[in-house]
Amino acid sequence: MIEIKNLVAEIEGKRILDGLNLTIHDGEVAAIMGPNGSGKSTLSYIIAGKEDYEILDGEVLLDGENVLEMEPSERAAAGVFLAFQYPLEIPGVATMTFLKAALNAQRRAREETELTTPEFMKAVQDAAGKLEIPRDMLKRALNVGFSGGEKKRMEILQMALLEPRFCILDETDSGLDIDALRVVSEGVNALRAPNRSFLVITHYQRLLQYIVPDTVHVMANGKIMRSGGKELAEELEANGYADYKAQEAA
Q1: Cα 141 to chain center, whole Å?
Q2: Which end of the chain, N or C, is surrounded by fewer C-beta atoms within 10 Å?
Q3: Residues spanned by the domain of 235
Q4: Separation between Cα atoms, residue 211 and residue 219, nearest integer Å
């Protein structure tokens, strides 16, 4: 279970998160929606361990442990995974080399046996097949020359291999056509499990037609302003964020 308690954070003296509270239970898919600048991506970066943000108060507890006290690599080993809105290209680093190094590094950190090359190859091929990732993509440098959809599929492949406890999807639908959105969403849905929770960050209800959330939270002014079921996303799609922007200005 993830518990975010009174999280306050700023960057360069500007407060971005202002007493944010949120609980996500095991097996739950929680969606966060909100206007630009409300702090959605900042929340994902802080949980994953991105530098530059100053944490002024609060905790982020994963199964009772405060991940804010961990290094980013320790958070990953504990089960935190962030799928970026804009995955980075890494020239010169082969995709398969990266995947094997990441997977076995986490297994070592968890005191698990590293996968042999045949075991690793089988795991990658099985997961890649489900995500419709062609073999030639796996032979290229990581994300280099990939389309937006291919980059997102590659991140879901990483998630499938690493089997995290808590998955954060930061605007995964950004730049995807309808076919890529379907494939990526099917990959995410296949990973839903009783011991795995998701935080899905998006502007639009479209993604949530494919990855149906258990709860929807509206974020504005660095905090959760309202929570509800999946019908809340439909309401936001119809009415927009004008009411919440007004609350920000008040």
Answers
A1: 22
A2: C
A3: 2-88+164-249
A4: 19
Residue closest to 145 by CA, chosen among 95, 185, 82, 81: 95
- CA trace torsion 73, 85, 104, 101 (10° rounding): -100
Is 240 inside a domain boundary? yes
Distances (CA, A) of 163 to 22, 31, 235: 23, 20, 33
End-to-end CA distance of the chain: 34
> How far, in Å, CA of 144 to CA of 201, rounded?
25
Q: Is the dihedral of CA 154, 156, 162, 164 positive or negative?
A: positive
Residue 120 lies in a domain: no
Domain assignment present for residue 49? The answer is yes
What's this model's pTM, rounded to 2 decimal places?
0.90
3-state secondary structure of 197: strand
Q: Is residue 101 assigned to a domain?
A: no
The series of mean pLDDT values per 10 residues for the chain, 250 residues long, is: 95 93 96 89 94 94 95 93 90 95 92 93 91 89 90 90 94 83 88 94 87 94 93 87 64
Length of the chain: 250
Report whether 153 contacts 95 (CB < 8 A).
Answer: no
Relative orientation angle of helices 117-130 and 148-162, to the nearest 10 degrees: 130
